[in-house]
Design a protein that fits this description.
This protein is mainly α. It has one domain: Up-down Bundle (Na+/H+ antiporter like fold), CATH 1.20.1530. About 75% of the residues lie in helices and about 0% in strands. The radius of gyration is 25 Å and the shape is globular. It is found in: Endoplasmic reticulum membrane.
Length: about 425
């Protein structure tokens, strides 16, 4: 394909995304208020529990077989690589811009977690429908492409709510701790401060909630009390060894206890498991998949529900981005740093990784599969990061501004990178 034709093919799905997003922003305006805050919440709930799981389950059930799952084994590793490299680059952004603690988790989350579902759901089908498309027959391209996108959405959801979620949680907790330490020191009576022992080795354990305090108390209830008497070296060494061992055990137990399993096992993840079971078990697949399947009406109904995921989620994105225009100011260096990471550094890194993986034989020959893998490096930040900032109350307004600018620039970035990626794989 000629370069101009490649550019037109890549720009069409991005224009569709812009039009639907713009419509969502228009419907969310105060003067219109068709897609106001309450309406977006209700629509988001329906999309989260019904539309998106139906789409993931139906597409995976159609495309996943024992052969295809072997061919797509590299995708979970590729998505994990995007998260790790994005986190490293995000940490560099934090160091260079000297970001405050309460925004560190937001910056790391935006740099590491990309929108692995909604954007791909629009781009891949649109490219497949183009006449003379680079990925072969439209029906075959659509079927295979939606299988890749559904797997990307399912794996991405697991990583976002296990990896990015805990990053935002940890940094928001640190910033909350710092503010509460200052409040405690200000409100503490002078009498207590004058009688406290300056050499005491017992430090206060401030936390962001009563549950955290209770957990910390449970973790430290076996701590050895301080003593002014001089202990023997053998006793000191044994105490140190016990304390180190206890700390390791406590950290491991806290990690498992504080992992948000309900967030990881969200409806889309459960739907992905159902889709895998239907696709991989031949007896169930024959019952539900195919024109002659006796229970094909179930699959057709789920497909019909899944078709509502793309417009519903895209309208919600447009309505949420409108909040960025009303958000508080944020330093330009943060936005520039995130844009450089997501739209320049990560895509360039992805080209080297995918080309290297292809050269040593880790990828199968389908160019559409390689295109999806490359596109996972050039996506805007996941909208779930905004939900996390609302949940922990750290950087909510700043997140709205970041999302506004990154998604506004995504129209240019995705068009250019999609053109380059199609040229590389086709």
């Amino acid at each position: 394909m000629k370069l101009l034709q490649l550019f037109i093919t890549a720009s069409v799905p991005v224009l569709k995304l812009l039009l639907i997003t713009g419509l969502g922003a228009y419907l969310a305006r105060d003067g219109i208020d068709i897609l106001g805050e309450d309406a977006r919440k209700h629509l988001n709930t329906v999309a989260f529990y019904v539309f998106c799981p139906a789409l993931v389950a139906s597409k995976l059930a159609q495309t996943i077989t024992s052969k295809s799952i072997v061919e797509m084994w590299f995708m979970p590793i590729n998505i994990l690589i995007t998260f790790i490299i994005g986190s490293i680059l995000g940490w560099i952004v934090i160091l260079v811009t000297r970001a405050p603690p309460h925004l560190s988790g937001l910056i790391l989350g935006c740099c590491s977690a990309g929108n692995l579902g909604t954007i791909l759901l629009i781009i891949i089908p649109s490219i497949c429908k183009e006449k003379g498309g680079p990925f072969g027959a439209p029906d075959v391209c659509q079927t295979n492409g939606m299988g890749y996108v559904s797997l990307s959405m399912a794996i991405g959801s697991i990583y976002i709510w296990s990896y990015a979620y805990n990053i935002v949680r940890i940094f928001s907790r640190r910033s909350t701790k710092g503010s509460e330490v200052s409040e405690i020191s200000i409100s503490m009576p002078s009498k207590e401060s004058s009688t406290s022992d300056p050499e005491s080795c017992i430090e206060p354990l401030p936390s962001s909630s009563k549950d955290m305090i209770a957990e910390d108390n449970e973790d430290h209830q076996c701590a050895v009390p301080c003593s002014r008497s001089v202990a023997k070296p053998e006793v000191v060494s044994s105490i140190n060894m016990v304390s180190v061992t206890d700390k390791v055990k406590q950290n491991i137990s806290m990690l498992f206890r504080k992992t948000n399993m309900s967030a990881i096992l969200n409806p889309s993840t459960i739907a992905a498991i159902v889709g895998f079971v239907i696709g991989l078990v031949p007896e169930i697949r024959k019952l539900m998949i195919g024109e002659g399947a006796p229970l094909r009406v179930i699959q057709d109904s789920v497909l019909l529900l899944g078709d509502g995921a793309i417009p519903a989620v895209t309208l919600i994105i447009g309505g949420n981005l409108l909040k960025g225009l009303q958000g508080q100011g944020i330093r330009k260096s943060f936005i520039i740093g995130i844009v450089i990471v997501r739209y320049i550094a990560l895509p360039l890194t992805g080209i080297f990784i995918i080309k290297g993986a292809q050269k040593i034989g880790l990828l199968h020959s389908d160019p559409l599969y390689r295109f999806v893998l490359l596109l996972q490096y050039a996506l805007p930040p996941a909208m779930s990061i905004g939900v996390m900032t609302q949940l922990f109350g750290a950087g909510e307004n700043e997140c709205s501004v970041i999302m506004l600018w990154t998604y506004a620039l995504a129209s240019i970035s995705l068009t250019l990178w999609s053109t380059a990626f199609i040229w590389l794989v086709a």
